[in-house]
Write a structure and sequence with these properties.
mainly beta; Jelly Rolls; nine-stranded antiparallel β-sheet; 1 helix
Length: about 350
């Protein structure tokens, strides 16, 4: 399926995380050639851009990975270490702005390497057979088998050319069997399988960013909504990485100084059968979920920790609705608890 300017992602991307996200520390570790543009650009999270007047020492500056014109037999390839081990639902091979220099075909292999990077003995499995690509477009490929866990991909392009972005939609794999019954873990961490499924607004940054590693790099590394000019407030529905009971909540407004929310609150629900998409009716019903954290005043550029009597014990939950009043930005949301 080829989409040149998609408004809605394909169904397989619903509830999925981009396992090839540079923001989440995916890395390009090897390539046959990157003469015109380095491999690392292909993993950038922001959409590719184009400046018709920008050139570098090797020629036209392209926002992606681009090899030189091949004058010998063979084809070019690149190896990517995924941000986290995961199951793959599908790919987006984006040739945006590559019009006379796109590869006519691509294929993708995957490998699981328990530690380190692939070597000569690594076994590669073909996930995407050689498939046609077009100029300046996003190409979505859905995977039928989703049971296996992978750590690395090898993208082949035939014979040469450029790819603006590679997105790998899937689910993070975390071995919950290794977590003790009373061991505290972040149930809302993206590397542990958590995912934002619905939200009111994401003008400056999607809620998934709140679930990422560390405290954030800058103001653009968190969830931020536009300024609300009418009634209401902003919210996000998050599926936990595993059903569990919350023990501690951390709301971090790091870097948000003139645009932090005035207050926040947290609701929860146990919905083990819920899918990866929420209908309008589901979203409306989430307003009546059970309160876990009542409205709390927030301050700028600060970690706010809540535990003990701050949190209502509503038992095991699978989803939370995090609300900020009326709008603004939150860098990180940590949902520490024990698995159910």
């Amino acid at each position: 399926m080829i989409i040149s300017d998609p408004v809605v992602l394909p169904d397989f991307a619903a509830g999925a995380v981009n396992l090839a996200s540079a923001r989440l520390c995916a890395k390009g570790i090897a390539s046959s050639d990157e003469f015109f543009a380095p491999l690392e650009r292909m993993l950038n999270d922001v959409p590719a851009s184009f400046d018709p007047d920008l050139y570098d020492d090797n020629g036209k500056y392209m926002d992606g990975w681009e090899s030189r014109r091949k004058r010998v037999p063979g084809h070019d390839w690149a190896i990517v270490k995924l941000a986290m081990p995961g199951r793959i639902y599908g790919f987006d091979v984006d040739t945006r702005y590559f019009t006379g220099n796109y590869p006519p075909f691509c294929s993708i292999e995957a490998a699981f390497v328990e530690s380190g990077d692939p070597g000569e003995a690594t076994v590669w499995t073909e996930l995407l057979a050689k498939s046609p690509l077009g100029p300046g477009a996003q190409h979505f490929f859905e995977m039928s088998g989703r049971d296996k866990v992978w750590t690395h991909l090898r993208l082949h392009i035939y014979p040469d050319g450029g790819v603006a972005r590679l997105r790998v939609y899937g689910a993070a794999y975390f071995d919950w069997s290794k977590v003790g019954a009373d061991e505290e873990v972040d149930l809302g961490y993206v590397f542990n399988g958590a995912k934002a499924l619905a939200w009111s607004d994401a003008h400056y940054g999607v809620p998934d960013k709140m679930l990422g590693p560390g405290r954030g790099l800058n103001m653009g590394d968190g969830w931020e909504t536009k300024r609300r000019r009418g009634p209401g407030h902003d919210w996000a529905i998050i599926r936990l990485g595993h059903p569990g009971t919350l023990r501690r909540v951390v709301v971090d407004t790091h870097f948000f100084k003139g645009n932090f929310p005035d207050t926040c609150e947290l609701l929860g629900a146990f919905l083990p059968e819920a899918g990866d998409t929420f209908s309008a009716a589901d979203i409306a019903a989430s307003e009546a979920w059970q309160p876990i954290l009542s409205r709390q005043k927030l301050q700028m550029d600060r970690e706010h920790a809540f535990s003990g009597a701050d949190l209502a014990d509503i038992g095991p939950i699978t989803h939370v609705r995090f609300a900020m009043h009326p709008d603004g930005g939150v860098m990180r949301l940590r949902l520490f608890g024990i698995k159910a």
